Amino acid sequence: MTTIQLELQHLKAAYGERVVLEDISLTLAAGEWFVLLGPNGCGKSTLLDCVAGRKAPAAGAIVIAGHVLDCDPVKAKMRLGYGCSPDELPPLLTARQCLEIHAGAKSLSSIGEDLLELAEALRLTPYWESFVDTLSLGTRQKLASLLALVGDPQLIVLDEAFNGLDPASAQILKHHLRRRLSRSGATLLLATHSLDIVEHHADRAGLLMEGRLQRIWQSEELAELRSTGSRFDDALAAGMAAGA
Fold first, then answer.
1. What is the mean pLDDT of the chain?
2. What φ, ψ does residue 212 adopt, rounded to 5°?
């Protein structure tokens, strides 16, 4: 039986009278890398905020690793790793303190050797004792991604996690994420505008437009695009035209 790490059931979200998400239903399985695509302002970040428990949906349910977020938020969030925007990191804490606080919140005595090795590979460790507000965008982006991975979460949620990363660091993080999904059965939900991630790394991809999931590309469709050498931007353009 396939383990389900995330289930969205008829999710609706709004800001006052303005409805941003309408009737979003989605199921993500263990080991799956799902990319969420869509134009600016379509609701991608709002959807991730709902999954992370940062915004209460107007209707629907969110189930993380078998735990309903609204009914059992502690157990649900213990199985969640969320990578916030680099601008939302606490400016007066050091990189090390941010990681230690996250580890403590998950009842861990340390962040673990696996993440220490990733931090070393990303060349983050020289900034261990630097305050967040002194770090570059790329370095803060690395830190935000590491924070999302503390405690081996079953569901990893990242929003534009590769923005500001140099090519070598981006490749290191992509390979680490794929190994993590394969090894632990975690699931990755990534919102991005980067089509190369869909072309080379995603298992499935979804197009969010006007608050609705207009199109989902299944693994077989992505595999066919890769085998034929087709560019995903053509498939995306067709999906956006159909959803307009």
1. 92
2. -130, 150
